[in-house]
Amino acid sequence: MPEEMSIFPRIALKPEVHDYLRNVFINKEVLAAVSQGEAEQRFQRLLSCLSHPPALTCVRVSTHLASLEEIQHRLGEELKQQQKCDSQSEDISVTILPHPRIPDVLLLPVIGPRPVVQLSSEVIVGAQCGSAVLRGAHVFAPGILATPKFMKTGDAVSVFSDLEGKCTRGNKDFKGKRVFVGNGVAEMDRSNIFCSDEPVKGVGIRMVEPLYQSPSFDGVLPSLAFLQNLPSVVVGHVLGPRPGERILDMCAAPGGKTCHIAALMGGQGEVVALDKIRGKVERIRQNAKALHLDCIKAHCFNSIEAVCTDQAQDTEGPPFPPQSFDRVLLDAPCSGLGQRPSMACTWNLKEICSYQPLQRKLFHTAVRLLKRGGVLVYSTCTVTLAENEEQVAWALNTFPCLTLQPQEPHIGAEGMLGAGLSPEQLRLLQRFSPELGWSAAEARGEDDSPTEQPESPTPLAHRANKDTIGFFIAKFLKS
Q1: What is the pLDDT of residue 309?
Q2: Residue 213's closest CA among 106, 86, 104?
Q3: Where in this protein does the record put region Disordered (predicted)?
Q4: What's the pTM value of the predicted model, to 2 decimals?
């Protein structure tokens, strides 16, 4: 597929990482099922779609505090008001539809790419900031790397994302590789952004003509509506928490899944959230308080060491005795190669491959802490075999007490060939593979698609289920 078919270039990877990923998607098991050309085409589609944003914005809503219909109505009113307040932006009607199979999800189509004319004044932002802009965010001051020499508040500027991470902060005329993400208006002078003694906070550039149009959710219904990738919401439902249970979220930050689990339990029971970083744990506590979820107990602790041998250990906090939990979520640290949009990955192969041993250490702890008859859900936001299907094969071989279980809802694809798993086992896995439902023509906005005034939620949801981040879910039962 020629590079020019896409709006953005394919994700930039180090050659060794590119070759490693190619071997993942063109392995012997895959080639026994499909042709070399078909496997190669899938891999090239993956590289292209990773640099583009998903076609829909997924919003998880707090149905333990209000009904889906009420939140849908209030969200629509808030976003309409947001448009009225932003006199610079175009008047674009916002479509909000419920997901037909997931009862706490609303879907908002992303309009784009749009015909935005680039301006002469350029602002360069970091890659992470650029990705956020493509998903509806304004540019916050810490993300700004370079501006025109005499930029003042009110100046119209074009915003570009630094592709290779080579732009130094404070640059006045960056000439490196960059991609256009839209136009905005400066909310600060250059001198305030770069010359202040204190770290600068707040919006630096307010986006008024983004290449991809999606509402900004900054301050919108903070206790009722949360931006969360669709597969991340699916994880909570697959775990299947029930009121009164004791559940462990082993790698909880930033806490979205923790709060979702507690909400699904109606706040009845206990959700223990662990993370190694104290600041992130405090954020989880704040979110839980704002959502009136008193059943969440967050602790700053290394989950690998979360099991103790002393049955008399105080179980209020970690470490815990074996078989302390009815359900365990291991949303494991991973290489993150399924995140979208991502223009570039600067990691080397050693860094990419460093996660499998860590995940296995966490898995050992998870199995020990899970009660017999309990459920363990393992998930990642990456696309490698080593961190996904190979981990499942290893777990089934290492822990005879574990068996794979059906997932509900199962709206993604099945597991990928290459780890020696049987067809029956692969069907029990859930891999969200955006390359299977993605086309460069749709990314250019050339196809007829449900992103403009969809007649019903069905085609919209079908696309939402396919055009996601790359994600993996496995569900186990401990006998």
Answers
A1: 81
A2: 86
A3: 441-464
A4: 0.93
Strand 325-331 relative to strand 246-249, pairing: parallel
| Number of neighbours of residue 244 by Cβ within 10 angstroms | 12
Which of the following CATH numbers is that of domain 122-210: 1.10.3430.10, 2.30.130.10, 3.40.640.10, 3.40.1280.10?
2.30.130.10
CA neighbours closer than 13 Å in the CB half-sphere of residue 110: 28
Q: How far is it, in rounded angstroms, from Cα 133 to Cα 216?
A: 9
Q: Does residue 409 have a cis bond before it (omega within 30 degrees)?
A: yes
pLDDT of residue 216: 82
Q: What per-residue confidence (pLDDT) applies to 453? A: 46
What is the model's pLDDT at position 312? Answer: 64
| 191 CB-near residues (< 8 Å, 6+ apart) | none
User: Can you read off the two tokens belonging to residue 386?
Assistant: 């080593």
pLDDT profile of the chain (479 residues), mean per 10:
58 95 97 97 96 94 96 93 64 81 95 93 94 93 95 97 90 90 96 84 94 87 93 98 98 95 96 95 93 95 92 77 97 97 92 98 98 98 98 98 98 98 98 85 53 55 91 98
E-state strands within 251-356: 270-275, 296-300, 325-331
Give the separation between CA 332 and CA 474, rounded to whole angstroms. Answer: 12
Q: What is the DSSP string of 20-56?
A: HHHHHHT-HHHHHHS-HHHHHHHHHHHHHHHTS--SE
Give me the pLDDT at residue 92, please. 56
Where along the chain do its domains lie? Answer: 56-109, 122-210, 230-251+303-478
Structure tokens at 396: 């089934």
Angle at which helices 355-369 and 389-398 cross, to 10°: 40
Name the one residue in this structure whose structure tokens are 């829909």.
Answer: 56
d(CA 410, CA 102): 11
Residues with a catalytic annotation lie at 381
For residues 215 and 11, give the distance between their C-alpha atoms in angstroms, rounded to a whole number: 25
Identity of the residue numbered 389: E
Position 418, amino acid: G
Fold of domain 230-251+303-478 = Rossmann fold (3.40.50)
Residues making up the binding site:
251-257, 275, 310, 331
- For 108, the enclosing helix (H) or strand (E) is strand 105-109
Cis peptide before 457 (omega within 30 of 0): no
Note whether 467 and 110 are within 8 A (CB): no
| CA neighbor of 251 nearest in space, from 282, 232, 277 | 277
Question: 272 forms bridges with which residues in the sheet?
Answer: 248, 297
Task: Report the alpha-carbon distance of residue 147 to residue 112 in Å, rounded.
Answer: 25
